[in-house]
Design a protein that fits this description.
Elements lengths: L7 E4 L5 E5 L2 E4 L6 E2 L2 H15 L3 E8 L6 E8 L29 E6 L5 E7 L10 H4 L5 H65 L1
Antiparallel strand pairs: 1-2, 2-3, 4-8, 5-6, 6-7, 7-8
């Protein structure tokens, strides 16, 4: 296939689909694709979106009811869904903005498994709109809420490590105090035994007199 003549789909030696766009071969997402972390999946799909010509949107997630950690995440196109008009509730809109939502269903669903890896369990590649996005716009993928969550997660992880270090130091200190107390107790016992022995000998001497 001549990649310079346009787009097309080929396969590599591993059987993974590669899409050719403007002479650049791009690895496509597929069900069963594995990543080391959620962030790795985001980075891959963001790069895929940028190269293919759409903007990634970080969408819904499912969290653990026990500890709140993210178990699954949906990543999609920024043209997913439709904008809900509020016209009529608050009066006429002076400068209506053009809608960026076109009901696009392209997305991937990644899920964490028992091994800790993140696996694509669902993948929809087809877009219902032209794939034309400027490089500058394509880089603006993660919204402020998602960035804040990442910052808080990193901060929490650092605090947990600090707490674990303090706990380790406290345990070591308590162990040292316990050992020191045992030594003092043994010394006190030796002194008490010596004192009793001395008193016993003193009584024997008194009786002999």
């Amino acid at each position: 296939m001549d990649l310079e003549d346009g787009g097309g789909v080929i396969e590599n030696s591993a059987g993974e689909e590669l899409v050719a766009s403007e002479g650049v071969v791009i690895l496509e997402p597929h069900e069963g694709m594995e990543f080391e972390s959620e962030d790795a999946a985001k980075i891959f799909y963001d790069e895929y979106a940028r190269r293919l010509g759409f903007v990634m949107r970080v969408m819904s997630c499912r969290r653990s009811e026990r500890d709140g950690r993210i178990l699954a995440r949906r990543l999609g196109c920024n043209k997913e869904g439709y904008c809900v008009s509020i016209r009529g509730k608050f009066g006429a809109v002076r400068k209506p903005r053009p809608s960026t939502r076109e009901g696009c269903k392209a997305m991937v669903h990644v899920k964490s498994d028992k091994s800790g890896k993140w696996i694509i369990t669902k993948c929809i590649k087809d877009h219902n709109h032209p794939l034309v996005v400027s490089p500058r716009e394509a880089r603006q993928t993660m919204d402020e809420k998602d960035k804040k969550i990442q910052e808080l997660t990193t901060d929490l992880r650092n605090k947990k490590r600090l707490c674990a270090a303090y706990q380790e130091q406290l345990v070591a200190f308590m162990k040292e105090v316990e050992e020191h107390s045992d030594q003092l107790s043994k010394k006190a016992q030796v002194v008490a035994n010596n004192l009793r022995e001395f008193e016993s000998k003193e009584q024997e001497v008194s009786h002999q007199r």
